[in-house]
Amino acid sequence: MGIGASPGVAVGHAFILDRKRIRTPKLRLAEAEVEPERMRMKTAIDLSDRQLAELKEQITRTEGSDHALILEAHRLMLHDPMLVDEVNRLIVDDRINAEWAVRRVARKIKHLFDNIPDEYFRERRSDVDYVADRIIRNLMGQVVDEEVEVPAEAIVVAHDLSPADAALMARSGRVAGFVTDLGGQTSHTAIVARARETPAVVGAGRASEQISPGDLVAMDGTRGVILVNPSEEQLSVFREEQRRYQESERLALMTKDQPAVSTDGYRIRLNGNMEFLEEIPSLLAHGAEGIGLYRTEFMFLDRKTAPTEEEHYRAYRQVLEAMGGRPVTIRTLDLGGDKVPGKTKHEKEPNPAMGLRAIRYCLSNRELFRTQLRALLRASVHGNLRLMFPLICGVSELREARSELEACRTALGRAGVPVGKRFPVGIMVETPSAAMIADRLAQEADFFSVGTNDLIQYSLAIDRQNREVAYLYRPLHLSVLRLLQTIIDAGKAANIPVSMCGEMAGDPLYTLVLLALGFDELSMTSGQIPVVKRFIRRVSRTDAVELLKGAMELTTAEEIERYVRTEMDRRFSETPEHPESSEPGQEPPPSDRTTG
Ligand code: PEP
Ligand code: MG
C-alpha cells in the first residue's frame, strides 16, 4: 500500500531505478597498494571518458548538439589536472582509496564554485557531482546511464524520483506507472505524474527493495494499491478496474464543452494546471477553459543551464497561441524548495521550504528573473496573458516584483521591442501571512490564486515532502477553511477574481466546499476537470453554502471530513473517490522523504 498520487490502473513489469546516492567507501591503503590504486583510477577515468563520448554521440543524433556540449564539458573535466592530479596526490600522500579521494576533491572544487557570485557558474557544482559520481560508480563496477533504457510499458519502481527523472521518463511515453518508496500527494513527482496522466503510487514504504526487476506489478494510482506477481484472479479484478476507469474517462470527456455551473446558476471557471507544453492538447480535450497555473520552473528540469530569453519566449508564445485567446496564467519561476535547477541537489539549505525559493529566489537572482520577465512581456503580444508571482508573503515583495516588471517593460520599449498591452498581474496566496493581509494585497494585485499545497504546508506546519506527517495534511482543517474564507472575502471586497490552483481544487471531495466559499475559478490537472465539473453541475450553490455552514460549526478536521463525506453521500449517493485514501484520517503514518 502507498499513497495514490495519480489516478489510473496499470499492469506491467517492474523496472527498478536505483537512484540511491552512492556510498563512497573509505579505505586506508598499504604502501604496496598505492600504485595499483593509481592504475585503478586511470582505468575508471578512461572508462568514464568512453561512456561520455558514446553518450554524446547518441544525444547528438537524437537531440542536437546543445546537450552534447555539456557532455563535452564533462569529458574535459575528467582530464582536468585540478581533479586528476589532486586525486593522485591524495592516493600517494594520504594513502586513501580512489573513491574517497575523488569525493574529497569534488567537494573542494565545489567550494571554489560556491564563492563565485555568478549564478550560472555556481550551478556548475552539479556538473562536478555528475562527473565525480560517474568515476566513483566506474571504480566500484556499478552500472551507469541506466536511465535511458526504460523498457516499454514498464512500471518504474524507485526509492525516490526527482521531478526531473519523473518528467523525463513520463515524457518518453514508455512508462505505464510509477511506484516510489518516498513522496506524498503534493510532492512535485506526484504532480508530474498526474499531469502526464501516468498512474502513480508514492510513499510506498520499501517497495523498491521488495519488488524485483521484472516482477509483474498491478497498481491502482487512485487507491494507492500495489500487488506484486498477482494471481490470475487478482489480475482480472485489476483489469476490470482498468476498464471501468477508462469508461468513466470516456464519459467524462463527453462533458468537455459544458460549463461548470451549479443548478442555481453559479458559474465557476475550470482551468488547467500545466508543467509542459505537451499537456495542452490533453487539457483542451478535457475542457480546460484556460490555464490557471503554468509552472515555468519545470523548464529547468531536464537541463543543466538556464533557458535563454528566446527559449522562455518561444514556450510562452506557444502556450498563448495554443490556448487561442483563453486566459493563460503564467507563474514566474518557483525554483528552490524541492525544485532545483539541474539534476543534482542545489546547495543544501537547512530548511529549503522556508528558504530561498520562489519569488525570493528570483528577487535575489535578478538576471534570471529579468530574462523571464522580458520573455513574458514580449510573448504577451500573442494572447491573453496573466502573470503571477509565487510565495508572496507581503506587500513589499509584490511591489518589488512589479517594479522589476515595469523596469523591463520600459527597457524593452526604449529598445523598440514590441510588447503587448498591460496584462493582469496577480499573486499566489500560499502563506498564512499573505492570507492574513489579503485585504492589503488585494489593493495591489489584479487577482489571487490560492496555492493550497503550500498554504496547508505552512499553516499546519507539515512538510509536504515528509511522509511521516502526510496524515496531518487536512484541507478541511478549520484553520484552512478560515484562511480560505479570509482570502475570498478580501478578493470579493476589492472586486478581484480569486482562483485556487493547489491540489485541493481538483479533488471532488472538496468541490462543494469550494463552490460554497465562492471561488471564481479552480485550476487542476486535465483528468480532474470533468469529474469536478460533474459535481458542480449537480448541486445548487445555496445547498453547498448550507453544507459549508454546518462544516464550519464543527471543530476537528476528522469531524469536518466525516460530515462533508456524509453530506456528499446523501446528495450524490456516490461519494467522490478521494485520491489519497477512502478515509483521509486513516492513512498510516508514512516514512521520510529526503530529496525532491
Ligand atoms: C501550491 O502551492 O498549491 C501550488 C499550486 O504551487 P506548487 O505546488 O507548485 O508549489
Ligand atoms: Mg506553491
Write the layout of secondary structure elements.
Layout: E1 3-6, E2 9-17, H1 34-63, H2 65-78, H3 81-94, H4 98-114, H5 119-122, H6 125-139, E3 154-158, H7 163-172, E4 175-180, H8 188-195, E5 200-202, H9 207-210, E6 216-220, E7 225-228, H10 232-253, E8 269-274, H11 280-285, E9 291-295, H12 309-322, E10 327-331, H13 358-364, H14 366-379, E11 384-389, H15 395-414, E12 425-429, H16 432-436, H17 438-444, E13 448-450, H18 452-459, H19 478-494, E14 498-500, H20 511-517, E15 521-524, H21 529-537, H22 541-553, H23 557-572
Parallel strand pairs: 2-3, 3-4, 4-5, 8-9, 8-15, 9-10, 10-11, 11-12, 12-13, 13-14, 14-15
Antiparallel strand pairs: 1-5, 2-6, 6-7
Helix pairs in contact: 1-2, 1-6, 2-6, 3-4, 4-6, 7-8, 12-14, 14-15, 17-19, 20-22, 22-23
The structure holds phosphoenolpyruvate and magnesium ion.
InterPro entries: PEP-util_enz_mobile_dom (IPR008279), PEP-utilizing_PTS_enzyme (IPR050499), PEP_util_AS (IPR018274), PEP_util_C (IPR000121), PEP_util_CS (IPR023151), Phosphohistidine_dom_sf (IPR036637), PTS_EI (IPR024692), PTS_EI-like (IPR006318)
GO molecular function: kinase activity; metal ion binding; phosphoenolpyruvate-protein phosphotransferase activity
Keywords: Coiled coil, Cytoplasm, Kinase, Magnesium, Metal-binding, Phosphotransferase system, Pyruvate, Sugar transport, Transferase, Transport
Written description of the protein model:
It is a single chain. The protein is an alpha/beta fold and 596 residues long. Helix 7 (163-172) links the parallel strand 3 (154-158) and strand 4. The chain folds into three domains: 3-18 and 146-231, Glucose Oxidase, domain 1; 31-139, PtsI, HPr-binding domain (Enzyme I, Chain A, domain 2); 248-341 and 354-572, Alpha-Beta Barrel (TIM Barrel). It is 47% helix and 12% strand. The protein has 23 helices and 15 strands. The strands form two sheets. It has an eight-stranded parallel barrel. The two termini are 21 Å apart. The relative contact order is 0.11. Bound molecules: phosphoenolpyruvate and magnesium ion (MG). The site of phosphoenolpyruvate (PEP) has 10 residues, from strand 9 and helix 18. Residues 566-596 are annotated as: Disordered.
